[in-house]
Amino acid sequence: MADIIKFTVALLLLGTATGLFYYFGDHSTPLRVFGLLIALGISLAILAKTVRGQAILNFTSETQAEFRKIAWPAQQETTRTTLIVLLMVVAVASILWLFDMLLMWVVRLLTGQGV
Predict the structure, then answer these.
(1) Based on C-alpha coordinates, what's the Rg of the chain?
(2) DSSP string, 25-46
(3) pTM, 2 dp
(4) Fewest 10 Å CB contacts: which of 11, 52, 70, 109?
(5) What's a single GO MF annotation on this record (predicted)?
């Protein structure tokens, strides 16, 4: 039940802030954006105190820990792999182009359009 109240308060805060953002449309845009960001931060802080919010924070910290475990390739390996991929793309594109030219020649020959 407490989570429902927290969700409601956070939603009302965001809704009110959004309404005020547009209500004061003739005022300074940076101030309106700043107020909206403050309301968003407070709403997120309220939501972080819910059961689902704690689960999301837990998931986020576990994800960051997994990212730290990844063995990222060195720059030299990344550059070499990128060059190999580019060369293969050019090679396959050239082969497909040649095959297309051959098929066009055969079709022109068969349809009597001449070569």
Answers:
(1) 30
(2) TTS-HHHHHHHHHHHHHHHHHH
(3) 0.56
(4) 70
(5) protein transmembrane transporter activity
